[in-house]
Structures are given as C-alpha cells and as structure tokens.
Amino acid sequence: MSHSSITSLLFLLVFPSVTTWAQGGATGAISGTVQDQSSAVIPRAQIDISGVAGTVRHLETDANGNFTAPLLPVGTYILLINAPGFAEARISSIEVTVTETTRLTAVLRPRSIATEVDVQAKWRT
Predict the structure, then answer these.
(1) Within 10 A of 27 (CB to CB), how many other CB atoms are there?
(2) Which residue from 19, 28, 70, 118 could staple onto 96, CB 3.0 to 4.6 Å apart?
C-alpha cells in the first residue's frame, strides 16, 4: 500500500464524516406563505415563532409573502402572524423534525372595523 493510500485511509478512520460535524444539532425548519382570503400574498407580515422556552425567532415575509425559519431545534412551535389591516393569526402545534422542513400556508382575515357614528341634530322651531 502506498504512503498516500495509508494517509487517506487514516484520515477516513479518524475523521469518518466531516459533514456530520457541519450538521450541528438536531434541527429542522418551518417555511410558508402568508396570504389573505383571496389568496393574495401579504408581504412584510410579522411572524413570531415560539417554542417551550418562549420566542425563538422573529421574522418578516418577503415581497412574495414567503418566510423561512431554518435551524430550529426539534420540537413543537406556535406561530403568531400580524399584518396591518388583518386580525392576528395563531397556528399551534407545528412539529419540527430532524432535517425536515414543515411547510404551511397561513390565511389572514381582515380585521373587523368598529364604526362609531355620532349624530347631532339641530331642531328648528
């Protein structure tokens, strides 16, 4: 066996997988699209992702209404989504598993508008 072959074999035995080191811990991702009831995308919607330990990530949808939260520890999450003119949306029980991306579409409903009308009448006699 040549010297370079022995060196290569030793390297493989001592460092079996460089990619294993790059993976870090057990993580997955959540990605999706935020849209209104007519399926129009909502850019710049604010998203808070919470886990057992509280808020994990705060992000914003892009111009196409899309978002991605990579490298989330494995677990169960809740998403709170807010956008001007829309009611807050809450999506619970989102499971993140190792190396998988959980994909979802969130549909926001218009915020109900409270209207108050004050009518004052003048009486003529």
Answers:
(1) 16
(2) 28
Question: What's the pLDDT tens digit per position in 13-57?
Answer: 444 444 344 445 799 999 999 999 999 999 999 999 999 878 889
C-alpha to C-alpha distance for 71 and 98, rounded to whole angstroms: 10
Q: Kindly state the tokens that stand for 106.
A: 């969130």
* Burial call 61-99: b when 16+ CB within 10 Å, e when fewer: beeebebebeebeeeebbbbbebeebeebebeebebeee
Taken in order of first residue, the domains within the chain and their CATH numbers are: 26-108 (2.60.40.10)
Beta strands 75-82 and 89-96 are: antiparallel
Dist CA 105 CA 97 (whole Å): 18
Q: Calculate mean pLDDT across residues 102-122.
A: 78
